[in-house]
Specification:
4-stranded parallel sheet; alpha/beta; 44% helix; 10 helices; Rossmann fold
Length: 298
């Protein structure tokens, strides 16, 4: 996506409203722009585009599950003081409530810049699947919307902000190409996961997600659900059952033992672990290597 395309996309989002506030003022010059990101992938995008002119606070500490976030008074104050809040409505109910209360006119809901998939049937959670960042092309759309808002807040830094947005878009384009090429020739195409976090990735790269539970990582499968996943895993000759770094692996490991497979981490990148030196791109590439091994790709 080149500069002209990025600007055209961002302009279209503004014309359409794109879930953004009507507040188009600039940041306070005495302190620089202060942004709040609801969880890690949104922090990553905002930092990459904002550079050293934008301070970014992540509401979720490393190692914590973002679904479970309950905002404390300090975090509500951060929302109130922010020039921009980047969040995904429907993913963290506490953040939705906090934005409505403290930052309704200074926020952007990234769920409005791309079409969300329906949550898979059978899980406790209904509605939409929020895990849009696992498709790099959808993260590009989010980057375009965020860059436009930051450029409005920082008119003197507009060109540099758009240059950084271009650079991020190019990195995501390359990542998308790596995934498409790396998963093009595989012996298997089913990924057995602890919960249904990888629907966008599976859709983009022509895989089939076989989740033990639905969107909510805290769900426990019914005996019938577990038996059905066992059947599908055996039918696809799955060699690996994937679990998440921030969620208990117990059920995934039980399934792996049942079907004679390994249990390994496939990271949905909802957050980084404490002390991690990785970022969105490096974790996505690690996921790709893991998938290629598990699926027998050449």
């Amino acid at each position: 996506m080149n500069r002209a395309t990025l600007l055209a996309t961002a302009a279209a989002l503004v014309i359409a409203g794109a879930g953004c506030s009507t507040d188009t003022g600039t940041a306070r010059p005495d302190r620089g722009t202060q942004a709040v990101a609801a969880f890690y992938p949104l922090q990553y995008v905002t930092e990459q585009i904002g550079g050293d002119r934008v301070g970014v606070t992540n509401l979720v500490k490393p190692g914590a599950e973002p679904h479970d976030l309950e905002l404390q008074p300090r975090q509500l104050a951060q929302l109130s003081d922010a020039d921009l809040v980047v969040y995904l409505r429907g993913f963290q109910p506490s953040v939705d409530e906090g934005v409505d209360r403290e930052a309704a006119k200074r926020s952007i809901d990234v769920a409005t810049v791309t079409t969300l998939r329906d949550a898979p049937a059978g899980g406790e959670t209904k509605g939409k699947d929020p895990h849009i960042w696992l498709d790099p092309t959808r993260l590009q759309a989010i980057a375009g919307a965020v860059s436009l808002r930051l450029a409005k807040l920082n008119p003197d830094d507009r060109d540099a902000i758009l240059d950084r947005a271009d650079a991020l878009t190019n990195k995501l384009t390359e990542l998308d190409r790596e995934y498409a090429a790396g998963l093009a020739n595989c012996q298997r195409h089913e990924i057995v996961t602890s919960h249904a976090a990888f629907g966008y990735l599976a859709e983009r790269y022509h895989l089939t997600q076989v989740p033990i539970t639905g969107i909510n990582a805290d769900e426990d499968p019914t005996p019938q659900q577990f038996a059905e996943v066992v059947r599908k895993a055996r039918a696809s000759r799955a060699t690996t059952v994937f679990f998440e770094a921030l969620v208990s692996p117990k059920i995934a490991r039980t399934l792996a033992t049942t079907v004679g497979a390994k249990a390994e981490v496939l990271d949905p990148i909802e957050g980084l672990e404490p002390g991690s030196t990785g970022d969105y791109l490096s974790v996505m590439r690690s996921n790709l290597a893991t998938l290629r091994t598990a699926l027998g790709c050449s």
